[in-house]
Amino acid sequence: MESVAEIIDDLRRQINEHNHRYYVLNEPSISDYDFDQLLKRLEALEREHPEFDDPLSPTHRVGSDITKGFEQHAHVYPMLSLSNTYSVSEVDQWVDRTVKALAGQECEIVGEMKFDGTSISLVYEHGRLVRAVTRGDGEKGDVVTQNIMTIKSIPLQLLPGDWPEMFEIRGEVLLPWKEFERLNEERAFNEEPLFANPRNAASGTLKLQNPAEVARRGLDAYFYYLLGENLPHDNHYDNMMAVRSWGFKVPDQMTVLRGIEEVDRYINHWDKARKELPVATDGLVFKVNSIKQQLNLGFTAKSPRWAIAYKFPAERALTELRFVSFDVGRMGIITPVANLEPVLLSGTIVKRASMHNEDILNQLDVHEHDMLYVEKGGEIIPKITGVDTSARKPGAEKVKFVSHCPACGTPLVRQDGEAAWMCPNKYGCVPQITGRVEHFVGRRMMNIDGIGEEIAQALFDARLVENIADLYDLRLEQLMALERFGKKSAERLINGIEQSKQVPFERVLYALSIPFVGETTAKKIARHGRTLDRIMEMSEAELCSIEDVGAVIARSVIEYFAAPANRQIISRLRAAGLKLEIEEDESLTPASDRLKGLTFVISGVFSKHSRDEYKAMIERNGGKNSGSISKKTSYVLAGENMGPAKLEKATSLGVPVIGEDDFLGMID
Ligand code: IVH
C-alpha cells in the first residue's frame, strides 16, 4: 500500500507533467475534466494532511494571499539591456565587427525573437524555484515569486535532467494577444482605463498585490538566457535546449545562424511571420552562440557586446474606410468611429478605429471610402493616422460630424471648451440608458454577472429594465419568459442582483454613472460625505473641498441629484435595500487594550482580512506581533495552509492555535 505521502507526491508529479504538456508543449494528454479531478484529489489530501504541505505544490498556483508591497532582492548578475538598431545594415555591421573582434574565428549566431513583455529573473536551487525578481533598476528588483507561481507554464519543480544545483534563468513575462484583448474588453466594459499594449498589461499584472487576480489574467513566460556556474553546455543554444527539457518554455523560433546572409534571411522571414505569433514581439535578438566567445567579447557598461537587438518598424496598414459610425456612450458622448475593411495589424484583425471627436475627424479630412492609414506601433488601440489622398475616389464627399443623435434624433450639444458633442436626452436615449445599466452591473460596481450589451438591450426592449432601479423589481418568471434566459441563467441573475445589495456604498456611488465621477472620485466623495443623504445636500463649495473634486465635478454631482428622475431612482434603490452609507470600517474601530500583554504569531492565508490588517488589529488592541513561536507566544493566529512545522512547534509548546473568527471574537 502506498502511504499518503507517496500518493501526494505522485499526484503532484502527474499534475506537474500535465501542466507542462498543456502549457509548454501544447499537447495535453488528458481532458480538462480529468485534470481537475487530479487537482481536486490532491487539494483534498493536502487539506486532510497539512503536514505534507509544500509551498511549491501545484495547488498553490492560484495564489490567494494578499501581499502588501514587494520585498527587494539584489541580482547576482546585473540585468543589462541590449543595444538595438532599426537598421538591417547595422546588424550586418555588428556581425562583421564581432567576427573581426574574434580574430576571424568561426562564429555561430543564435537568432531569436525579442519578446515585448517584462523581463524576469528566476533562481532555482536543487530543481526548485526559490525566487522570482523583476528587472527593477538592473541591480535589484522586486520579489514577485507568488505572482510568478501563478504562471502555469513556469515549472516550480524541474523535470528530471542535468540542471546545475543552482542557476538563474531569465525570460520575458507576456500577456498573449488573446488574453490581452479579453482583459481590455472587460476593462472597457467596466470603464476602467485600457492597457495600451500587452507589455504594459504584463508589467502591471506582475506588480499586482493580489496573486488570485494575476492568475486570472493568463500570463505566460518565454525563456532566453541561462546563467550560473556548471552550465550543461558551452554554448547558448544547447543550454536553451537543455532548459526546454527541464520544463521551461523556450521559443521555437530560436535558430543557429551562420554568416550575414542567414542573419538577413532570418530578419526578412520574421518581419512578416511574427504577426502570426500568439504574443507581442518588437524585434529580433542576435547572440553569439559560444559562451567562450561571449566571455571574450564581454560587456559595455550597459549591454553585452555579444548581442544586438533588431527592432521592427512601427506597424502601419492601409485599408479602406467602409463607413463612419457615431457611437453614443452612456454619458451621451458621441464618438466618430472608422469602420474599416478588416486588416491584420500586429497579430490582430482591426475592423474599427476611433477618431475621437469632431476636431480630429476634421483634421484628418476623411472622405467617403478613403484609404486610411491605421497604426498600432506597440499601442493596441488602433489609431487612424492619415489618409492616402492619392487614392481618393472621384466625387467622394467629406465625412461630416452628425448634428443629431444617431440613436434618438435629439439635436446634439457641445459645451464651451469641450471637444465632445453630447446627446442631452439622458433619460430617453436608448444606448445611454442601456449603457448606464451595463455600467451599473460591472465587476467593480455592483458586480452583477450576466448582463452584457445584448441582455441589457433585451431587458430594455421587453420594458423590464428602463433604469437601474428596475433591476431590483425583476422577477424570475419575467426573465424566464425571455428567449435569452433559461432557468439557470435567470436564477443566477436574480441571485446576483440580490447579492449586490451588500456592495459597499463607495461602489454604489460609482455605479450610478454621475458624469465625471470615476471610481476614485466616487470613493473620495463617499468617504467625505459618509451617507448619500448628506452628499445629496452638499453645496458646490463643500464638494470642492474634497480632494480631486473641482467645479466641473461638483456641478455635475449637484445636477445629478437635482434631477427628479434620479431622485426617484435613488428612493427605489433605498427601498430595495442597497447600502447608501459608509459602513464603519474595521480599521477605524477604536483602539482598546483587550490584547494587552499578549503576543501573537500569524501564519497561513486568511479570508476575512489580510495578514497586515490582522497585524494592525493586534497592535491597535494593545497586543504584540512576533515572527516565531516560542514559550512566550500567547496565541498562534492560523489561517489556511499554515506550515506544518509551525503547527508542530505550537503544539509541542502548548501554544493555543486560533482561527480568524476566534480572533475577531477576542477584540469584538
Ligand atoms: S537577452 C544581457 N533575449 O529585451 C542580455 N532579451 O533590451 C539579456 N528581451 O531586458 C537579454 N526578448 O526584457 C534577451 N530573446 C531575448 C529577449 C530579450 C526580449 C528583452 C529583455 C531585456 C530587453 C533588453
How many discrete structural domains? 5
Provide the helix percentage: 25-40%
Shape: globular
The overall pLDDT average reads: 90
What low-confidence regions span 5 or more consecutive residues with pLDDT below 50?
A: 64-68
Number of helical elements: 24
The CATH topology of the largest domain turns out to be: D-amino Acid Aminotransferase, Chain A, domain 1
CATH class of the largest domain: Alpha Beta
> What is the first-to-last residue Cα distance?
49 Å
CATH architectural designation of the largest domain: 2-Layer Sandwich
How does this model look, in words?
This protein is an alpha+beta fold. It folds into five domains: 4-60, Helix hairpin bin (Helix Hairpins); 72-311, D-amino Acid Aminotransferase, Chain A, domain 1, CATH 3.30.470; 316-391, Nucleic acid-binding proteins (OB fold (Dihydrolipoamide Acetyltransferase, E2P)), CATH 2.40.50.140; 430-576, DNA polymerase, domain 1; 599-666, BRCT domain (Rossmann fold, 3-Layer(aba) Sandwich), CATH 3.40.50. It is 37% helix and 19% strand. It contains 24 helices and 22 strands. The strands form six sheets. A five-stranded mixed β-sheet has the order 2-11-10-3-9. It has a five-stranded antiparallel β-sheet with strand order 14-13-12-15-16, covered by helices on one side. Helix 1 (4-24) packs antiparallel against helix 2. The chain is globular, with a radius of gyration of 30 Å. The two termini are 49 Å apart. The site of 2-(butylsulfanyl)adenosine (IVH) has 16 residues, from strand 3, strand 8 and strand 11.
